Amino acid sequence: MGSRASTLLREEEIEEIKKETGFSHSQITRLYSRFTSLDKGENGALSREDFQRIPELAINPLGDRIINAFFPDGEDQVNFRGFMRTLAHFRPVEDNEKNKNVSNTEPLNSRTNKLHFAFQLYDLDRDDKISRDELLQVLRMMVGVNISDEQLGSIADRTIQEADANGDGCISFTEFMKVLEKVDVEQKMSIRFLH
Amino acid sequence: MCVYPCTPLCPPVPSSCYPSMMAALWTLFWALSVCLLGCAGLTPPQAHNLPPSVGSNSSSSSGGGGLHVDAPMALRVFSLDYHHVQAPFEIVLWIMLASLAKLGFHWSGRVPAVVPESCVLIMVGLLVGGVIYGVRHSAPPTLSADSFFLFLLPPIVLDAGYFLPGRLFFENLGTILWYAVLGTFWNVLGIGLSLYGVCLLAPSSLGDISLLHCLLFSSLIAAVDPVAVLSVFQEMQVNDQLHILVFGESLLNDAVTVVLYKLFESFLRLPSVSGLDVLLGMCRVVVVGLGGLFLGLFFGLVAALTSRFTSRAQVIAPLFVFLYSYLSYLTSEMLHLSGITAIVTCAVTMKQYVEANVSERSNTSIQYFLKMWSSVSETLIFIFLGVSTIQDVHMWSWPFVCSTLLLCLFWRTTGVLLLTSVVNKLRRNAVTFRDQFIIAYGGLRGAICFSLVFLIDDFPKKKLFITTTIVVILFTVFVQGMTIKPLVELLDVKRKKKALPTVSEEIHTRLIDHLMAGMEDVVGYWGQHFWKDKFEQFNKKYLRRFLIREDQQAHSILRVYQELERRGQRGDAEASSVVDPRPPSRPLLPEEMDSIRRILSRNLQNFNKKQTRAYSRHSLHQDVATNRARKPLHRHQSVGGRYTCNTTAPQEDDERLSDSLRGRAGLSRSHTVCTRSSRRTLSDSLASTESQTQSQPENPKPEGVDQTSSDQQHPVEKTPKKQLSFNLENENQQ
């Protein structure tokens, strides 16, 4: 019972998160209540098991990778700041934000950062390249067991071939961005966090 | 012979043939018109001059119908009995006229670029109607409301529903319903009330039009017509979202229109109208819409279930599609529900299951028949619109007509602006001002208003209403229809994406879809992805298992597997080496793209099939999955035995699978069929089918292999029959 009090959100924290992620006050509080409802252990941080308890996420073919994306390298717990930082990638890009650029760093929900998030779902070893094996793994997860390895291999080869500009057999982040240049990523990779 | 109907672009024809073809077409066309005239002349009003050309050859009145030969007792060698065949003959002539007009339209050079087809057809109708009127001095045959609603409208709506792009439609469903329901209400009330105001301002001529009459009139004139919208927008190729918004709205506002029309009509018959009646009217809207929806769902599911059992009588499988859809339409009309909603829902529901259950050729038949019937219907509707304009019943009133026109435009524009400003806050993808303008401007009226106005109970000013309706329809179709294309280009509205997505795009977009679904789960946001996922799971678990044939549930995967095998072999033979981990870069052949896309779309839990040109009347959407797979793609002898099967199918399924595979081998060409048990025989059957392909220039190998394998055909007794049908198909494809 006592540990509950320590997980209440303080105003300064809200302000910091607001500055870092761009969420509004009400969005942050709403997401905080979601965070706490997921946090069954009530220790102010989410573990992988907490995520896996979400039923639909368990059925999602990319469920594990999505969960991993929340956890910074090597760690097993994610606190609210980290949670918000990850979710900030999916904030819709507002028009008035496109023009003003307050800080030097790009906002977390810019197109590049969104694409980078997707890129990292493939790139497990974080070498900034999607190798054929990594691609195959993701394909296998998405496609299921009905397709033979051979076919999957051909698909993977095609994919790399289409994207690979410098011929190294892997897809770099720039090549990845180029392939998706016609796709409306800002709109696709946004969740409407209701005000 | 090319099976696929010509695309709107003129097919390559040597220019020397062109004038002679045109001449031939026009001769035929005029000959037909003369025939029609003759028939029109034949059907009495009596005591009129029969047209000299055809009519004089026959007598119209005598029952036996012989020539007036002055040898009464001799055996009649030649006799003409027109009455015997009159009704179907005339119908066929009208349809022939319509179709020839359509043909002529497409051959007439620059005209299709400027004038939409609907305009030309109406003009032809006007011409024919005028000529008939001139000959008979009485009104030409008009489009009866019954024949319109029962025979001409359903095929068009069915075609629209069957080829509706599902994902796009459901993504925008909220906006579409918003426009359809609220927009129609707004328009009806706005136009009705302001028209009543106009009538009050001109009491001399318009004084006897009551408020209810105005509302009744506005309820039928406010509705956007799907037929007109389809025919104009299909030539325009605007971006998909805009298209689906306008088109979806025109389809769904039928419920509101029908209810309001019937409501005001029954109000007119009631002695007085109370608030309760209005409230009940509102409830009726909901009942009508939802009733149509559920009826459509019911029939769609029953149709899907029936199609599951059609494997032994494949020829009549397409018939079920049409029968059930039409039945749903008729049932909902019988219950005074929204027929259009029912038939659209039916088509949308049954499509995926039927496509999986019936054979390839049945699928093609379904699609072709749908396109054909809807095309004929649409043409007939427009021609009859033209013909029916020529009548005795016109009553003109400048203030009424002009104000109706202006008010229609005004209220539609304000309605769209207002509604969009509200709905944009809730949408991910905002509707831009240009899109809004096109939505407002593209609100064409068509034959539905026309038929509804004829159904009004008679009252003194009914002819005025008819005239006004005709003027509005002609105005919207001609003026708006002709100018919308240049406007689209002028305003630089976003056009349709021409290219199909690459494989990488597909895969990455699927990844993003899954990612977003996962994120929405984490956030606890029941967004679109969430519901889509849920529906897909429900679909997979219950519906597909119940409604799709058992052997078909694996079918798509096996087919795809075989496609890839074939592709792999070809890549092999061309590179003349083992499969290179980094094959030389070459542009993807369409067949390969299709096979990959098919794997992805079937296995990646995704709704969206492909970018289909759903709206074109002139060519089927390039369902590459079925069509291209069957082109003579085999360049090299497919030796089935080379690849071992990696299927994880359990042993007892093998026989069933191999049976279905054997059956398939005849019907679709792209097989390297291999199963553990019957590897040799199946590959031989394939080899023998190869022998029957037309010789390809780059195909040096088949002949040699054929001789060796043809004597091994005998063990396979099922395939020869299929090979025959396969042959026919082969020839058709050329």
UniProtKB/TrEMBL annotation, chain A:
Keywords: Calcium, Cell membrane, Cytoplasm, Lipoprotein, Membrane, Metal-binding, Myristate, Nucleus, Phosphoprotein, Protein transport, Repeat, Transport
MF (Gene Ontology): calcium ion binding
InterPro entries on file: Calcineurin_B_homologous, EF-hand-dom_pair, EF_Hand_1_Ca_BS, EF_hand_dom
A Gene Ontology cellular-component term: plasma membrane
Annotated CDD domains: EFh
Predominant location category: membrane
GO process terms (BP): protein transport
Cited SMART domains: EFh
Domain EF-hand: 110-145, 151-186
Subcellular location: Cell membrane; Cytoplasm; Nucleus
Pfam family, one: EF-hand_7
PANTHER family attached to this UniProt entry: EG:114D9.1 PROTEIN-RELATED (PTHR46002)
Family: Belongs to the calcineurin regulatory subunit family. CHP subfamily.
Protein name: Calcineurin B homologous protein 1
